[in-house]
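Quality-control log, excerpt.
Job 1 of 2 completed; input and output follow.
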Amino acid sequence: MSRLNKDILFLIFKELQDDSKSLFSCLMVNKLWCETVIPILWRNPWSYNINYDDKNYLFMIIVFYLTNDTKELLMRQGIQLPSIPYQSLLFDYLSYCRSININIINSIISIGSSFDYDQFILQQEFYNLFMKKFPKLKYLDMESINHQLFYFPEAELRLVSLCELRCDTSIDTSYFYGLARLCKYIQRLVIINVDMNANLNGIAKLIEVQKNLKHFKWADEFVDYPLIKDSQKIIFHELEKKANNLNSLEVFFHYEHKFIQEILTKFHKLKILRIENYLFFNEEQLKKLNMQVFHQLEILNIEHNKINVISNIIENSGERLKKILFRPRDSLNYEFDDLNENSLNFIRKIYENCPLIEYLSITFCPSKEHFTEFEKLLKVCKKLKSLLIIIFNNSMAETHKKKMENGEELLNVLIKSTPTNLREIRFFDHFKFSLEVLEEFLGKWRGCALTIVTKDSIYRGEDYKKVINKYKNYGVIKDFRCETYEYNVNYLSYLM
């Protein structure tokens, strides 16, 4: 590694750009490594898992760039600036920076003063500095913004290159009008809806002027869920006009908006489709959905819905799906009486249309036919890496004995047919594994070292722990955990 040239090191460190711990360690190796890592770390210095309130050095570095006149003015205002013991910095840190995160910067600025007015002045000086020093701006998180950045000198040169914007609906609509004048090539737009009655015209205008919008995310953050008007329509009608470019759509509503069903079929070039909303398709909408082909879809997650809606999308995908992730237990609430038929159809749609599937959530009944179809799925889908499985009998309450039989049947299927790439299984609901059956399964396992997650506390018993630790020592089990169902469905968001 010490003999690799700077270009090769840069490519390696760039792959670690989200791993701050490793990058910070690399700084200490030698001068060449330090010179290569610093530009990567400082592209987005606000993104690392650091308690910024305690990190005075970031505040010190930014203050260092301020002119002496500005520092004197701030200190006369009563703002505490650090005494900097050096005449020059080892690197021109701000020249590498490509991002602004308003919340993080506000946190850093609080080191200088706890008074609102002082912080406002500091913000103004910092943003003015950034607009001068940053060569270009790629990422902007403008939640809690108090300054209209587009009015600062040289802002036009910095903002014209903006690729990613994160904002919320509490921001005055005039801010978005200002950005719309300069920012025409945003590729990723994330909107956090914190104000149910916000004026969204500015955001709609910003979307309208975009020429290369590829990723769009809308997330509601309400504590209460009152009945409100569909003010979001203006946003999604503008978004609909960008359907030919958009390849990622993520929508998290806390209440039903029927216009999503109406426009969903327009987004035919999506690679990622993630919707958390009560998408109840009527017969006509399902018919349109059946006619829509999502040729490029790779990741699918639609919550609070019947499995047949997901099956329809799978059937009309282009056989590129790699992740199908949803909360299987939630779907039981909407199709309790139809679970047998719909879950069988779902399994079949998977092995008929998803040869590349790697991550899969699945629910089915403990019938012979279901186990047979599930075995076919495992034989066809050779690239599977992670399974979340729920077995649920909607016709009767399962006895303990029957749950043990279901568990034995499931493990037999997994032993016979599981792809060798499978490295994680999450088990829930109407099945249990006896000690003997579990040990037989682990003894016959020939794939990757397994991570097994379940919610059943039976596996915390001493007899089970002894077997589990035995197969950990053999390298068969990587990890065995008992977690809540809620923990595991939240984990799905991480996989997205």
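Job 2 of 2 completed; input and output follow.
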Amino acid sequence: MQTLNKSKNHSMVFRADQVGSLLRSDVIKKARLQRANGEISLEQLRKIEDEEIARIVLKQKDAGLQAVTDGEFRRAWWHFDFLENLVGVDGFWSGNGIQFQQKQTKSRGIKVTSKLDFGNHPMLEDYKYLHRVAEDHVAKFTIPSPSMLHFRGEIDKSVYQDEEEFFDDLAKTYKKGIQAFYDAGCRYLQLDDTSWAYLCSEEQKEQLRAKGTDPDHLIKMYLHTLNKAIADRPDDLKITMHICRGNFRSTWISSGGYEPVAEQLFGHLDIDGFFLEYDNDRSGGFEPLRFVNRSDLNIVLGLVTSKFGELESKDEIKKRIEEAAQFVNLDQLCLSPQCGFASTEEGNLLTEEQQWAKLQHVVEISREVWK
């Protein structure tokens, strides 16, 4: 197992943080529909997106957040938009959506059709714009974890006959991409990942085994690939991971606490922080946090739900932070919503006003806890 680099000095700690995606505004939804219908040009769409992103960045600043995102306003999906713009990956209409509880996403799939690489990715320009409008705030950018290309994608066996060659190229591709975002000015990068939540769920692991996939082998390969991709990154680049159990129209996919993967993830993945969903009983208890064995690893507790608009009790959130602090030093803990508000462009079932109230709630609670 790779030895963790504990000498890095990542000083960016945000007691109040966010996962990244925000509800698409009516202006954005209308413009994207107009573009799909050929009524406006790509340049016109981008100008509208620029204006709306500048507006919501200002809203994030007003809410008291120190790290701001573009709300993923230029994307339809949290993962496919990024992955299908890697060299060697094609997106296609699959005819099947991803099944959530009683709901299904629209059709989309990705396939590896040639050797992987990171080229002139369009999201580099997306980041540069966010960096400009963030000004004195930290511009946080979110991309899917490398695991997601394997977990959600099809791989042409004539391109990659050998699994190890695929994962080796995947790690190199992400390593190159991470450096490209750094060179564009990014100092806070988040990897979003649903595969680890599947690996926490006995039901989902049984489904994987039924398809001929060994969950333990996935854990080993994903961990190795992630560490290889982020190895030797610049000391002033903060990399975190959000582990998600599914977030589509306020529904979910998997259940299960972090115990099955906690020792591997918290003990052997060389990143700077984890965003963990803890907004309901499906997420399990805080006991798996006992495997956090580094004082420089931040755990961002997703105790405020992004799925519904009602505000949680401040006292209840504070009580749960105290419970988590029995396993991890309070100084290493932070607070955020459990997920983004719109992992896909459809968004969760709450209003924009409720969304901003949630983020304000996170900021207020964090100021009271970490005085």
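Post-run check on job 2. The longest helix spans residues 42-63.
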